[in-house]
């Protein structure tokens, strides 16, 4: 099959991002990542691994980490508010959403810390603009490089040092001279006219073919092994967990593969001892302008099952105990519920940081006031760059100053 036809087929099937494949760079297979387990650099690249979980759509922080003892919360949320008896209590004032039993257990084990009121100056309520700000770490003028991409720039790293399990590389992993690798997951939907022989040809390389054509074949051929790996991993839990529906991403972003499937693959890579120091995974579907309570619980249950299960698995190995997970979204929601039992785009929210080495079992910072508001929105008190600086220094062993353009704030005491 010629290169152009193969490329068009792969792009149309959602196997890889069109720009990345057309450029012949940035797209890797799972075999490429696992091959680095034998690389000497894998053992010396650093002590810890960052797993970044992006929740696209604007996750409601007040429905995730709930100030259940605050009368202003109940006044603002009405029927959407949770009674104290329903919340998973963290202290006498604050609790987790009732769907988050696994992460509550991690908190009790002191392996989960929650940072209250995270945001940035002059917040933007556009999904895309705000996510650009978070990923580039520039609230004034989002640039063309992500904060982890700039970390890669300074380290001069192999692209496999930071990978995204999404169809295209997110801006957060794009640097000026280096970039992370996209390792897209998922299956291919093909026309009925495509035969098994055609599929085999798509995934097979030929002697002497151009490098781009060989890369396209490898990307396609790798889908079979990835799909089998994910199917086997999910089958182990089928009797106990029904939350494996493969919901598509929303228009505001998120990978097509389930969050659990992505984290299962991350776990396999970590256990194999690959050179990757940063894994970027994601989930969409948090933009609840109506009927939020039920929908939010369903989404948070999915997050809880995936992340808590991942943390439990990581606790079994030395490599896994060096993993730090950070969960964030582009903004929180308005304090007051709207007329459709939902919430509209807001500002400050929470960041969850978890792992065996995290100084957990604590709430970092104060819950922002629910009455002293900025035009109906929470006032942030922790700049997200303080969190990034701590992650860069404590998890990745990097100097935050050049990566964050001289930002000198830092969240203290992130790890034990």
**CATH class value:** Alpha Beta
| Helical residues, percent | 25-40%
Span between termini: 54 Å
Q: How is the CATH topology named?
A: Alkaline Phosphatase, subunit A
Report on the biggest sheet: 9 strands, mixed
| Architecture per CATH nomenclature, i.e. the level-2 architecture | 3-Layer(aba) Sandwich
The shape, in one word, is: globular
Helical element count? 14
Strand-residue proportion = 5-15%
- As a whole number of angstroms, the C-alpha radius of gyration is 21 Å
Number of strands: 12
Mean pLDDT: 84
Helix-strand string: HHHHEEHEEHEHHEEHHHEHEEEEHH
Which consecutive residue ranges, at least 5 long each, have pLDDT under 50?
A: 1-25, 223-228, 237-251
Q: How many separate domains? A: 1
Decide which structural class fits the backbone. alpha/beta
